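A favour, since you know our structure tokens better than I do. It will help me judge whether the discrete encoding reads sensibly. The space below this message is yours for that.
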Amino acid sequence: MNKEERILNEFLVESFNEILKVEEAALKKGKFKNLSIREMHVIEAVVKNEKQGKNTSSNIAKTLDITPGTLTISVNSLERKGYLLRERDIHDKRVINIYTTDSGKEVEENHAKFHENMVKEMLDFFPEEKRKILMEAVVELEKFFKSRKKVD
């Protein structure tokens, strides 16, 4: 790797890991200590799919890019903890719909506020002229990662 590649690689790896650590620490400080960050992201995906009326287990698994079996394991745990409910579809008994409970909605609202605050703090860190450059770079990075996802 050349110097640019090494710097970018370190930035991506360290930033990804640091964001997960910060998210996990925020969860552990609050009243939702019994959740892992992975479980939080499952709840987040359920809420997103619920809002779109697409809260079937298969749609949620696709959103998370995991297998239905992996989702089932997480949903079992989150159902026991009182964050999610699972029900068979009334029109098609083969379909399983997943819903958030009031506790699930509450934890997702807290998590959304956490992200909102983190993004605001991050943007406030940059002077206005550098913020514009950052946003242009982020848009290009997003395009790159989405194009890679289609290839793989």
Remarks:
- The chain has one domain: 34-151.
- The CA atoms of residues 15 and 21 lie 10 Å apart.
- The mean pLDDT is 93.
